[in-house]
Amino acid sequence: MNPLLLIFGLLGAGAAKSGLRGDSSGPPVRGIGRNDRNDIAPTDDDDTEPAGDFGADDPATDDDDSAPSGVSTGGTDTPDGTDTTTDTSTDTSGSTGKPTADTGDTVPTSGSGDSTSGGTGSTDGTTGSTGDTGSTGGTTGSTGDAGSTGGTTGSTGGSTGSTGTTGGTTGSTGGTTGSTGGTTGSTGGTATGTGSSGHTMGNTTPSVQPPGTGASQAQIDSFLTQLAAQPETHIHGTGSSMAGEHTAALNLVPRGASSHVAIGDGDWFDPATWSGGQVPGDGAKVLIPEGVTVNYGGVSNASLFTLRVDGVLDFETNVDSKMVFDTVVVSPSGHLIIGTPTDPVDPNVDIDLIVANNGPIDTNWDPMLLSRGIVAHGGTSIHGAVKDSHEKVADDPLTGDTSVKFAGVPQGWEVGDTIVIAGTHYDGYSWDNSIGAVRFHPPEDEVRVITGIDADGRVHFNQPLAFDHDAPRTDLQTSVANYTRNVSIETENAASAEVYERGHVMFMHSDNVDVRYAEFHELGRTDKSQISQSADSFGQTSFDSNVQGRYALHLHRTGTSDPNDPAIVTGNAVYGSPGWGYVHHDSNAILDNNASYDTFGAGFVAETGNEIGAWNDNIAIFAQGVSWDIPKDGQHLSTFDTGKTGDGFWFQGRMVSSTDNIAASVNTGFVYFHRDGNNGMIDFDASLFPYSEALLNNPTTTADLTPILTFDGNETFAAKQGLHIVKSGPNQGHDVWSELSDFTAWSVVSGAHLEYTSHYILRDFDLVSRVHHPFTVYSNGIHLGTNASDITIIDANVDGFKDGIDLNKTFVDGAGNTNTIPA
Question: N or C, which terminus of the chain has less Cβ within 10 Å?
Fold first, then answer.
């Protein structure tokens, strides 16, 4: 039987489908609509979209469903035949798969999902803990005999908890301290927090009561003594990697080392707010204790060293502000607020957070190189002025033009904004006949500053264009993205900073993250042009160690236990990074209408394969890579150093839906890469897959075994490849198909490439080759590579390629035997 089923225009009887688009029998996959960018939780009706058109063709017991012992391309590729092995020794975020090495922490010997003793307080403000078993841990399930304080009474006596400020994430103080002893946990079973979609921000009842700004010196001294004596506790199981990360973050900002402590609610610039009666200045180590809210409204050039937020730091939304710092740590009880959905930063106000360039990081103080930026373990709300991240032009911009025309005026764009007109031709790593060698050719993206905006949608800029930004058809156009926001986080003097001196932003272990319309400018310290490793892999780090996990905007292990409670990342801009731009890691998140530019490795990354959520209407312009190899050949699996080839959107897993995203000036627009050398991907709860019965009721599953949930309306232009999909092997043990629909790729060398995979429907692909260029080896519209089978192609338009669809087939078995089937 020919393993390739090719259908144009209709679907044959041999490929009957279940859960079709329009078929109410299939559960919807939640996305986010344009009208919901200002909603707290994008769950209303217009945000549901049907799951991908899944089908079935042959029983799961057919021969092609048996798992291979390993596959090979005949010497050029050694796929990981063990990628589906489940390792249950990890992860406190609800996953039971292999541990990640992202932040450089020691790989755990036992995960907090195991019944390790000495468990801690609740991690879920809606569940709390009871009796003398510590907490149930809404995401971890870890237990302990007596909580962190032994058998003593918890911080709330015997009552239910205080307020559970973060709801479904960390709860209140009980979630962080486990101070229940033999009593009811301090978050209680009815904590008032509403979870990350509600994003309640505010203080809990602190275990050490602040004296207030009118306190006597004796009261202040007593308060400071009690603060310094407070133990650092955590919500993660003993020995887990997340516990190590938590400890490493708080070790950067010990309470007892603080030079300035807020003693009561007040204004940052009011000396009465602070323990010593002085506003924090250069080199200050600042602490905002639990139970204290400090309002920040003003411009300061004082360069703080550290700022720890156990309480609330709330920026005024109607006053220009500037803060300079080396390191900010928001503890699990803390909240950083820079605008909210109901009180966004005024469009006429600028708030700038500057990560100071203090030279090399002192590894005696910070052996994990976690500092130099923002590490938010608690709640974060950032809401700048609403702004469209990108728009399509109405007419092709050409050389010499000083304006571009849009169908209407883009929302929120202003004179002075930085925009990027995406190039429509990109050579990347290609032959240069003048030097007789392959070299990197920069993209033709053009950075400009807006000088005027007309009512008819024409936007003027400061310099004429140097390149034509033309398209091969009138219905195809380039995109223009805007990278200016009125809330910005940036590296100080980034142009002169060494890579290892740059800042980074990490939202860690809490899904209480709502970040909208902010600019992340020249951030990120992990250099994907070089080999990167976890910190513990170095043995002992030095200031220039290339540690993984230090990115521009990093959702780090915020959890996947609650599919209805995602972190929200909307309308943001990442401009310039030596590594990845947006990183969605072991998390449930919605990324909508964000833009990246000038990253290395990839613009957007789902890192460990267990991520859930949705990516919608984002744009990635220019991601350079280490080469123009296909993604399979440019990675270092031994250290889980993937996503290095310069791609727009990199999916290590398949449970994040992708709709209406755009990639330009990249190696490959969209990459699904499911290999890790058994070194970093995380298995996940099978119930998160809407057709979990196909997984034979196994409690966990892997990216290799689940179909791509949603891939619809995406676009690549000015690239080597539009789309690349590769697994460790084609077998998945069931016949639920992946449907990829309405994909457009133009000005590309190759449209779509699938290998080591099977069970696909490619519907309505529109693939247009680039204008022919000397020394370019033109490829195929659709290439079905080694060990690819069971592919259905419906209503494809393929134009200008050397071969429209390459039907030559090569199959390699576990013993390395090759069988070629000619077209």
Answer: N
Cβ-count burial 315-328 (b if 16+ within 10 Å, e if not):
bbbebbbbbbbbbb
* Dist CA 823 CA 809 (whole Å): 7
Give me 460's structure tokens.
Answer: 């003027």
What is the chain's alpha carbon radius of gyration, rounded to the nearest angstrom?
26
Question: How far is the C-alpha of 707 from the C-alpha of 687, rounded, in Å?
Answer: 14
- Both tokens assigned to 217: 């010196």
The Cα 742–Cα 764 span in angstroms is 5
Average pLDDT estimate for 669-684: 74
Range list of β-strands (E), 727-787: 738-741, 744-755, 757-763, 766-769, 780-784
- Identify the DSSP state of 393: B
Strands 684-685 and 700-701: antiparallel
Please state the length of the chain: 823
Please tell me the number of Cα atoms within 13 Å of 698 on its side-chain side.
Answer: 19
Per-residue pLDDT reduced to its tens digit, 3-15: 333 433 333 323 3
Non-local (6+) Cβ contacts of 440 within 8 A are 428, 429, 624
Q: Give the integer Cα–Cα distance in Å for 428 and 441.
A: 5
- For residue 191, give both structure tokens: 């904590």
What is the reported pLDDT for 732? 75
Tokens of 772: 């022919």
* Cα–Cα distance measured from residue 101 to residue 641, given in angstroms and rounded to the nearest whole number: 10
Domain ranges of the chain: 1-82+611-823, 115-193, 390-478
Residue 818 phi/psi, 5-degree rounding, is: -110, 135
Identity (one letter) of the amino acid at 520? F
Task: Give yes or no for a contact between 108 and 90, defined as CB atoms under 8 angstroms apart.
Answer: yes
Element (H, E) at 63: none
Tell me the three state secondary structure of residue 745: strand
Q: Which residue has the tokens 């590594």?
A: 579
CA proximity to 717, closest of 673, 667, 665: 665
Per-residue exposure over 399-411, b if at least 16 CB sit within 10 Å of its own CB, e if not = eebebbebeebbe
Q: Find where tokens 């943001």 sit.
A: 572
pLDDT tens profile 411-438: 999 999 999 999 999 999 888 889 999 8
- Alpha carbon distance 569, 512 (integer Å): 11
Check residue 709 and give its pLDDT.
Answer: 86
Q: Token pair of 603, please?
A: 């613009």
Torsion of CA 217, 218, 219, 223, to 10 degrees: 100
Distances (CA, A) of 353 to 145, 163, 296, 376: 43, 30, 12, 14
Helix (H) or strand (E) holding 322: strand 321-330
Amino acid letter at 286?
V
* Positions of E strands within 34-145: 48-50
At residue 634, the pLDDT reads 54
Task: Tell me what pLDDT residue 680 has.
Answer: 67
Q: Give a three-class secondary structure readout of 772-796.
A: CCCCCCCCEEEEECCCEEEEEEECC
User: Dihedral sign, CA of 375, 380, 386, 392?
Assistant: positive
